[in-house]
Specification:
260 residues; alpha/beta; Arc Repressor Mutant, subunit A; Rossmann fold; 2 domains; seven-stranded parallel sheet; three-stranded antiparallel sheet; 24% strand
């Protein structure tokens, strides 16, 4: 970005969060940075005057449009630290030249965002925001699964997407979910279910990425049981009932932390 000389540490942090999420609300910034809404507005007005960001209703966004909307960015900002430590831990599971599937969803998106600039492997994805990250990774190959773009989840779905998945194979799949219970993994609706299951079948190793806030969370559509999972990466110890189910299914659990 240009015109960044003389920025405060707080303004730099605002820019970093925008690079991760595309939008951050004024209220969230004020709370997390322990300052007043007025202070955040002064910071963001200064950044806007420098031509770095755009001040919008309720917060601040990237100056140039990203391939995700305010709604996606707000969901990405929820439990953002947990998602970041999970994604950082996932980098140790990825070889520099292997083929990986990155599912739609904000936690899986964070895995893509944390990939190093010199990653030389192949990314297969049905996520429009992950495609955007592919543009950053100049040494990587990105395979975009076509189909109908769902506006709320920013995922491609439908028969065309399924047909594309059926011709592909990956070493690892990084899958997001809406909830985990002792009887398996859940999503909020069945519209994306066939594609998610196809992505799971297309990978040699299935890695579920889920924040601790997803544990025993409410969701209505059963995606799969733990026998289909090889690794779970989360940010806090797993509740006892879920931990027992994971152990029975021989799922490796990685609890990531700030130092991961």
């Amino acid at each position: 970005m240009s015109n960044t000389v003389g920025l405060s540490s707080r303004q730099t942090e605002i820019i970093n969060r925008l690079g991760r999420n595309g939008f951050v609300s004024t209220a969230e910034l004020a709370t997390s940075l322990a300052v007043s809404d007025m202070t955040i507005r002064r910071d963001t007005r200064d950044l806007a005057a420098r031509g770095i960001v755009r001040v919008v209703h309720g917060g601040v966004s990237l100056l140039h449009g990203a391939l995700h909307t305010t709604d996606f960015a707000e969901r990405a900002d929820h439990e953002s630290l947990a998602k970041e430590v999970i994604a950082t831990a996932c980098q140790a599971l990825i070889s520099p030249r292997e083929t990986i599937i990155i599912d739609a969803g904000t936690t899986a998106f964070e895995v893509a965002r944390c990939l190093p600039n010199d990653f030389r492997g192949t990314i297969i994805t049905n996520s429009a925001p992950v495609i955007q990250q592919g543009l950053r990774l100049r040494s990587a190959r990105t395979i975009c699964l076509g189909g109908e773009l769902l506006q709320d989840s920013h995922a491609f779905a439908g028969e065309m997407t399924l047909a594309a998945v059926n011709h592909l194979r990956a070493q690892k799949a990084f899958m997001g979910v809406a909830a985990l219970h002792a009887d398996g993994l859940y999503v909020d609706r069945d519209l994306e279910l066939p594609v998610k299951r196809a992505l799971i079948q297309a990978a040699d190793e299935v890695i579920v990425v889920a924040t601790s806030g997803k544990m025993n969370h409410s969701a209505i559509v059963h995606l799969m049981d733990f026998n289909a999972v090889d690794v779970l990466v989360t940010d806090a110890p797993v509740p006892a009932a879920i931990a027992k189910a994971l152990e029975r299914a021989s799922v490796r659990v990685i609890v990531a932390g700030p130092a991961a």
